[in-house]
Protein 1
Amino acid sequence: MNRFKGKIIGSLFVNEKEFIKVIDEEEGNEYKLPKSQILFPVREGRKYDFFIKYNEKFQKEFISIMHPDFLVGDEADYEIEGISDDEFNRYFILKSDFKIPIKVPKLQHQNEKRRKVRCRILRYKMGEPILRNIDFQNDNFRINEKYKFNIFEFSHFFDRKGNKVDSLVINSELLNNSLSVRAYDWHKEGIWQFKDIECEVIGFDKNSDPKLKIIDSRHPYYSIGNKSKFKVEEIVKRTNFNTGRPYFVLAVCDEFDFRYEVSALPNQERRVQVGDEIECEVKGIDTKVRLGQVNIEDPFFYRFEEIVDDVNFKKNYFSRFFDDNHIQDEYIEQFKTQYKASQGFWVFTYCNHILPTDFRESISKKNYAKAHEINNLLILLALLHESRLIP
């Protein structure tokens, strides 16, 4: 279908039949259109949209005019001014200045008291626009709103990849028929003990039935705020697509063999092992059980022997500071307190104050062998810091 913008430039009579004259301003072509085919008021001098069709029977082109508010391909909300029926369908009558009623089929879910309906203009037939009702918004539901549904049965379906997906078949007085919604691990028969489920409307399908996702905050074994032990099954590395930076999550399971994820703490991927237990608190329940770690140990804390595997170094430059007979000062006290409390910052105190003091004393006493060992220890700790193995 070829379209053009044309101007009505006058009218004429041919064999007592009135025509209007139209000029295609871009191409300069002139056309005649029977006035009887124009079903709405037009004015001379005004521009309108037209389309051209070639009629093989008459071997010539014919034009049709489009109403400015009903252009082919457009979508718009139209006011409803009435209802009509035929033997097959029920229709909304749309408000317009056409000489004939402009109708569109009413969809099953649509309330007859609604004031507007969204339509798409498909084509024209004998001057009349043919519309499709595309208002799939269900009058009983609103997108992003939450609703309770009764569980009819536990079932499953197959996704586009052929994978079996557990589901719940649900119904409600607001629905015309039962619907299936994707279930999660704890919504299975024999586990889920509730008779209903809360869902959020995320859209509508071609039949105007709501598309749903389960956001029920109930769980057969947990409530928000509960704390429990979870076993680490896998340490997963991922990439933040906004920053490009890597981060880690811990895949964990509980005593019921349900698998969840929790964010790893900084450096925790180097400390935790598969099979370790961590304590987590249930922060939220919706499409996931959302966990946060509690009773958190400093992920940057390492014992001295984990950093420096040398018995003599530990005896000469570390353990002696914990001897009650050793001369104490504020930095040594701070260092000891941090280490006993399993705080990773003991390394800062040790490297910035304890060892440099020992180094200077060794130099002043001309004990260069000891100073050399202390210097090597400082270099080792600095290298480990650069590699982010310690804070």
Protein 2
Amino acid sequence: MWKDRRLQFILTFGAVFAVVPMVVRNILPYDMVENLYWGKELQPGYVKHPPLFAWVSYFFYEICFSWPESLYVLTQLNLLLGFYFIFRTSRLIFGDETKSYASIFIFMSSVCAVFGNEKFNANTVLISLFPMMFFFFVRLLKFNRKMDALALGLASALAFLGKYFALLYIGCLWLFLIFDRHSRRMLKTPLPYVAAAVFLLGIGWHLAWMWNSDFVSLKYSLDKSINAPTNFFSCFNFLLMQTVFFSTSFLAFKYSYSGKMRFLPLKDGQFSSEERFIIFITIIPNLLLFAVSLMTGMRIGSFWGTNMLMMLGVYLLIINGDHLNHDRLFRFVKGTSFVFAVILLAKLGVARCLLGTLDPTNALNLRSISDHIQQDWQSRFPGQKMTILKTDKATAALHLHLEDSPSSYDVARNDQYRIYDRYPTDTKVAVAFLCSKNGGEIKYFRDFYKTDILFDNMVSVTEEYSVYYAFLEVKNDDDRSRHQPGGASI
């Protein structure tokens, strides 16, 4: 098996796109740092998202000897796990290894396989979890076994704990059972209800946390989508982006297909239940999301299609049948992968090299700055653990090197309020952010945090920028103003 050149190429693909950002990026992207920071404390939920991806991030970081760049490896391992379940699903449907590899290659040739999978976060964790969920659902349709129902329930729970968006697809599994005339008979058996019971058991503890936390993470998700500023063009932008992102997948199929290519199924009767499910799960969730956005103006993320269309290759093979030249497809995906690697190198290289003087984050020496902060803290408060280092996005990666606690993400506190509104009196807090030499940000900071500054200092980064940090003592007086800031939160 390991001598198969197709498998070797897939593994090489993952390795290359793990190494490229390691070599070119200077610091981890903000949301990946945030994942690690949350994962320091294994809470049952966080202010923005359910906990799974933060837990996985921090566990992988720890087993890799606290090496931050290991998250790029995790990102690609997550993609390879998604490929594995695409392969297994395709093998169940076609019983053919060559078509199973083709199903992977069609997705690999898309822009989303590279640029929609640069970081491991709440969106990309679904790249592995959705194909896993679909695989066990197809097995359930094909074999009607209780073990597959149990596995489906567990996979669905993991998807929900990855991102609440998974509820759309979990609901579509039930819609398929209701509307597909051949699969509807399964509703008269215990199997779907066994899966539902395992799902509810798997997420019950998180639902309890949501209830006790006033649904703070769900509110955040709604604020980023349904409650975001109305934009009735968002659905058309999403449609345009998916067309662009997956145009190379359609080109790959067209290049290697000798017959007349079809985009939609023509006759329902010629497909098995498993094939009808793949057609259903590829089309219906996208249509539902488009319709809701069209009617409400709900925002749709451009790269949501990365996990929504993981089964595109299986779908195209189902509706178009045979006549695929697999050698031509293999050559095409190797060519597009090379082009994508060059583009990614250029994109990240420009950001670091050519724009290095314009972007001060490229000059941050995180370890050195962290040492400065830690030493100053210990000299003034010996034996006391830093309660929280509150940062801006530019300095967020300081959390990877400091012995602080992520209490700023305690869901019982509102992160948008002043520090003295969120911590008990006499709590000592550290704050750090990137500032320009004119000190405008520091003036805003001093005006905003009207509390005792016990110590402050600056570490030079470039001729124009420094990192400013301060230690505060919370004084939770009744006469202090308690309103939300008009500007950005530091």
Protein 3
Amino acid sequence: MSAVAGFIFPLVMMGADTAERLRSVRVSPEGAFAGIGSYDVSPESPDGTKILYARWTRSPKDGGGGAGSIWYCRRDLSGHTKIIDYKNLWVHNAGGIAWLDNERIQVAACFDGKQTASAIININGTVEFGPYPGLEVLHEPVRGKVLLYGLGTRAQFGRGLFVLDTATGKISKVCDERDFVKYAAKMPDMKDPAYWVITHPTWSKDGLYIALCLQSNKPKAPIGEYLFSFRPDFTDVVFFGKKPMHFNWYDDHQSIFGNDRAVQDGLENDNSIRRWTRDGKWIETLAGAATHNTMSPDKRFFAGESWYNTDPFLYLYRKGSTKVTATIMSHCFQSVTWEMRAHVNPSFSRNGKRLYYNRATSDALNEVWCSDLSGL
């Protein structure tokens, strides 16, 4: 390893078919506990000029998070600028921070010290929409539309899934858990709809469809976890079955990719990254085993971290190969990744030439890093 201008450059371990060494740099300030948003959500602004991340005032001792602030910097890692402070932000997925456009972001944080609320915030610190108490955000907005979901009775609009149209400020309800009762017979391990919750709602890349996970939060009962997709007016509803782990849309709205942990497609559930139709039929195996996976914009590369409760490794795969192309990073600080839930959560840059990720560098510190893939 070498140090240049305050950054650390670990040498990336490559597969036997690749001789290049990829350069990696720390994005977040030295010594700051920091993190990026969810897996497969690029921290780069749509024009690729800015990088978004969260910082905590001190190292969170558990996944509950703590006080801190949302920041961005230029892509050359200069000009670190604070957007807004918060009283508490979950380490897990960093409050779903993501770019709405080149000047605005989404986030779900506790701003008043009482309850988590989602908001749309200009990078100058102005809150443009919200806060909306009890509503969460997670995956990337599309065409100015943000998916909000309520997990409890304290949510401003109740439980369910909502769309915020930032062009008009209008919030419309898409559905709630009761709308899926008709599928109960297909979900035998989720017997009590009173405990059903919506999680991981995500737009298709063209903004014409939504996919989500329906699961059960009933104590001492199976969590279930089933995938559905549909139009924003809740038509053309398609039941997938047991969801892929860490799913997302592969294309505009025809197919889904994710980790095959429990998909009932007749193939071995080996955690490999695969692609399916909306109704759960296998199309192809895209890459080897991983979790919290991401796909490059040109679909040539996939990346993901090693499975839960192991020393975290970040693997890069070429599409169609289950052989690791490169091990981008690894560390032994499992407590940060799995107990604090600062998951590696990799995501590609807008042009696919860089890979961003969370990396623990001690038992009490997580940092945001980036690896240059242009040599591949």
